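Let's practice the habit of predicting before peeking. Look at the sequence and jot down your guess about where helices and strands might fall. Then scroll down.
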Amino acid sequence: MANSTKSKNGENVLEIKNLTVSLPKGADREFAIEDVSISIGVGEIVCIVGESGSGKSVTAQTVMGLNPPDQLKPVAGSIHLNNESILDVSQERLRQLRGERMAMIFQEPMTALNPVMTVGDQIAEMLEIHTNMSSGERYKKVLEVMEDVNLPDPKKMIDSYPHQLSGGQRQRIMIAIALALEPDLLIADEPTTALDVTTQAQILDLIKDIQKRHGTAVMFITHDFGVVAEIADRVIVMRNGHVVEHGTVDYVLSESTEPYTRMLISSVPSLTPPKREPIIKGEPILETRGLEKIYGSLGLFGRGRVVHAANQVKLEVRRGETLGVVGESGSGKSTVARCIVRLVDPNGGEVLIDGNDIAGLSQKGIRPFRKDVQIVFQDPYRSLNPRRTVGQSIIEGPMNFKVSKSEAIDRAAELMRVVGLSPDALDRFPHQFSGGQRQRICIARALAMEPEILIADEAVSALDVSVQAQVLELLDQVRQEFDLAVLFITHDLRVAAQICDRIMVMKLGEVVEEGPTASVYADPQHEYTKLLLDAAPGREVDFTAAVTG
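Done guessing? Here is the structure:
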């Protein structure tokens, strides 16, 4: 290991020494984290990386005092914030320290923000609790911090509610709340995982800018080594509750000999598309022509907001081919997928499945085509019924199409093997599996219908990088084995580079560029495509060379 865990300047804002936090009895291990030591200095960004269950978030939440005390108890070690022991202070003092001296940005701002309060009031609330400012002073300070995080037109946005803002704007509001009192320590727990690539780049730039201007110490939790390469001064690698490596970002990315670290780095998808066998040309199995989807209405007196979520979208996918659809949030990617599956009704155009136009069919008329097109969603836990075994979930579809129960069970067992799980697990419930295993089950459920077309809608975006690599390999494997046409929707250009034969770039409901993946990545023609590629975190780092070098 390099550098030990000391800060680059020797002046520590946060000092964690030999921290151990216990888990409840009956858990899969005794300690959530064990003997963890981390320090962060003034104006330093330390990234903590590792897979789910590594102890990253437990460490951060223990610093903030947010863990449920009856389940996650610190049993050894110490935490000092500016030389004050966090573990020994009263709850009243801890509440005072939160906001004034340390603050946290969470992964999903929509669940962290109050939906019935304006964003301005939520920032002002922090000031009201922790300061003696007058209402006028608070209003001025709210506008100041909103400007500080580069929000557009703060005087107008101050009265907006969270649902009226984009994902990136909501995350900026969370950062504004965290920075309202200019804390010494900022903890960011996966703050960019759910964001599209350009918004992610903006948030990363914002955090770096704030760190430089205010001298803030930043603990940045992530599983994305692209983000690490972009933002970190030092890196802490955690696994199963232990620190397995620490050092400068240059050391960890280029000189690490720790097998687990090298495995994580090797799992980062390259932005360079691999050579893929050309698809034999033939008639498209999936095609859209002039596809239209409009949301909104004219409203009172003929005025209202109308959004063209899909505008004259044309696409073609052949058997054995993967077409990637990329773009920012709001570009229309998922709308196109939902129109194809007929989860929403298109307003115009054609959706052709093996030459049959299903766009205008009734729900009864669409039923025979349901089994031909299957979709795998982003969140497998929400996709599976928590009260049904995974076996029951997999056999439900085939049985609805007159397959006998015994045949459906045999098919489910075989598909569990195909996706790398034991058939013995068919009697277990979704909560008994990891996120990656649940996504494999969702793929098995889709394949049970023996579809011709598989749609993956952000199917790997919520997974750890190593699990993501496994699921991507599985999707490519089943595409070849079952000769599927795959529509792969993602905002992650690294992922798209590795799995897609062709790429379609969407912006504001329209297709702005389309072509073979290697060609589009090597020589993008549209300015928007260039913007997306330039925004990919860690784009200057060759992670393959970092591992093999």
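How did you do? The chain is about 40% helix and 25% strand.
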